[in-house]
Amino acid sequence: MPSSSGPAIENLYSEQRTFPPPADFAERATIGDPAVYDEAEQDVEAWWASHAGALRWTKPWDTICQWDPPFARWFDGGQLNVSDNCVDRHIDDGHGSQVAYYWEGEPGDTREITYHQLRDEVCRFANALKDLGVAKGDRVNIYLPMIPELPVAMLACARIGAIHSVVFAGFSSQSLVDRIEDADAHVLITADGAYRKGNVVPLKESADRAMSSTDKVTTCVVVRRTGDDVEMTEGRDHFYDDVVDGQSAECPPEPMDAEDVLYILYTSGTTGKPKGIVHTTGGYLTQVAATHRLVFDLKPDTDVYWCAADIGWVTGHSYIVYGPLANRATSIMYEGAPDHPGKDRFWEIVDRYKATILYTAPTAIRAFMKWGAELPAKHDLSSLRLLGTVGEPINPEAWMWYHEHIGGGTAPVVDTWWQTETGAIMITPLPGVTASKPGSAMTAFPGIRAVVVDEQGEAVAPGGGGYLTLQRPWPAMLRTIWGDEERYRDTYWSRFGPDIYFAGDGAKLDDDGHVWLLGRVDDVMNISGHRISTTEVESALVDHPKVAEAAVTGRADEMTGQAIAAFVTLRSGEDPSDELAAQLREHVAERIGKIARPANVLFTEDLPKTRSGKIMRRLLKDIAEGRELGDVTTLANADIVDEIKTRSDSAKAEEQ
Q1: What distance, in Å, lies between the first and last C-alpha atoms of the chain?
Q2: How confident is the model over 175-222, as pLDDT tens digits?
Q3: Which residue in 224, 420, 576, 650 could disulfide with 314, CB within 3.0 to 4.6 Å?
Q4: Domains in the chain and their CATH numbers?
Q5: What is the Cα–Cα distance from 168 to 166, expressed in whole angstroms?
Q6: More confident position, 530 or 381
Q7: Residue 464 half-sphere exposure, CB side, CA atoms within 13 Å?
C-alpha cells in the first residue's frame, strides 16, 4: 500500500442526531448489555472460542490463536466441515423442515427450499463433483447467477474439501480467465444464461470465450436456467441435471482442518492483477456466524432475513450463504434487478415474504430515494424490525430516509464496515445496545481492535481524522493472497508495521469517539493544503432535500492544487438549473465550511458504478480533468459515461 503524504484527513461533517435502541427491541435483543464489550476485551481468545464452540467440531482445537505477524492461525488442530455445520447440524437437531431459502427469480418464478432439501441437493452435487474427478484441495470456479444452484455448488465444494472461487456473473470473460489462471482451476460451474432487467445474459457464451483463452478448464458443468440452446463441447461440458440425476443424497462431509482453505475470492482493483483473497475454515465460519447472529439480532425461529447483495461478492459469501445457514436462518434470495419490472420490486418482495431483516447497500438506498417514497408506501413493510447497510459509507440523509420510509421510524439501522479481506463485519452498532448516529458505523464489534491513526501511526483523539487500522488478529481475517505471500505483506502489513493491518480507508472519530468511514484513502482530496474526504462533501450534498445522490472528485487547479468537482443526481420530480447548482455549492459551504465548496456542480441522471454498486470516482476524475477514459465495459451502466463526458465538455466550453 503506497504511503500517503500530508496532514491527517480533516474532520468536517458533524452529526448531532442520535437514535437509541427502541426499548422493546432492546428488551428482546440477543445482546442487550453493553458489558459484552468489556467481556470480550478481558479475554479476547476466550470470547472467540465461545463462538467457535457453538459450531460442530469433529476434533477439538489445540490452540485458539497463533499470531506470527502478519500470519495468524485460529483453532489450530481442530477439525470441522462447513457444509455439515450449515445443513446437517440443523437437520440432526430436528429443523430439517425449516425453510432455508425463499428464492425468487426475476421473471417471477419461485422456489421454497428446506434445510433437508438443501442438504440432499448439496450431497447429490458433491457426489457428482467427485465422479467428475474433483478432490480435496482442487480449485473450482463458479460463474453462476443468483439461483439456488450457486449456494449448492459452494456447499458441495466445502463438503468434499474442494476450494471454490466464485466469479460474479456480471464480470467479463477476461475477468473469468484471469481468475481461472491464477487459481489453476480445472473445473468451471456456469449456467446457460441469466436474467437481468428482462434480458437474457448469455453466461455460457462468456464461459466459452474464457475457456477458449485458457487450457486450464477440463470440466464444465452447465445449469439450465433460461433454457436457451448453448454449445456443449463433447467430453468437457456436462449439464447439471445430467450429472446430478441418480446420485445418492448421502455424502459424508470431509473432515477439514480449521486452517484448510475454504475459498478464494478475488478483489478487482482499478489497476493491477486481481488479488486472490484466501479464507480458511474454522475462524471464518466462527466469525461470520457470530456477527450474523449478533449484529442482525437473529431469531432463527421467527425471522425472515434478506441480504439483498450478490453471492459473487464477499457480502453474499458471508451473509447470504455461510453466516445465515450456520445460524439456521430462513433467508430470501432474489435473482434480478431492484427495478424490474417496476421500481418497487424490492418492496413487493419484503411484503410477500414478510421479511423482518433487510441488509442492502447505500447505492441501492439512494436509488430508492431518487425513485420516490411513494413506491415503498404502496406496500406493507411493517414486518421489518431491523435494517442494515453495507458496501460503502452511507450518507446521513440516506440513512434517515431508510430509517423513516423503510423502517417506519422504529427499526434500528446497523451500518456495517468490513471488507473482502476481513471476511466478516468489523465495525457496527449492536442494535440492542448502541445508540446509532446517521452515517456512522459507530464502534468496533466486540473483540475487534479498530484504531484510527495519523501519518506516524499514532492513535488520533476524538475529533481527529486519519487512517483506519486493525491492531489485533481476528478469526475471519484473510490468511494470504493466493500464491503471493510477498504481495500480502506489502499490501496490508507494510504501512504501519507487520502487526497492524492498514485497511486503505480513511476514517475519523467524532467528539464522542465514534467511527465514521471516509472512503478509500485514494479518494481524499487536497484542497489548499487541506485533506478533505469525498464522503463528507457528498454527504453534505445529499443533505439537501432535492439531491438523491452525489459524487465528488478533486481536479487539478492552479490556485488551490485541487478543486472539487461535484456530480449530482436529483430526486424524482426535481429539475436541474444554474440557480440550484449555486444553492448546492453554498449548502456545502454552510454545512461543512467554505474550504469544501465545490468549484462546479454537474447534474446527471446517474453516476458510473461498478457491478457491485460502488461509484467509480476515478472515471469522474478523468472526466473532470479532460483525460482519455479507459475501458468502461465492466461498469453496470457504461452508457452513462459518455453522457456525463458530453455534459462536462459542454459546461467547460460555456465557462471559456
Answers
A1: 39
A2: 899 999 999 999 999 999 999 989 999 999 999 999 999 999 999 999
A3: 420
A4: 1-42+260-520 (3.40.50.12780), 120-254 (3.40.50.980), 528-655 (3.30.300.30)
A5: 6
A6: 381
A7: 15
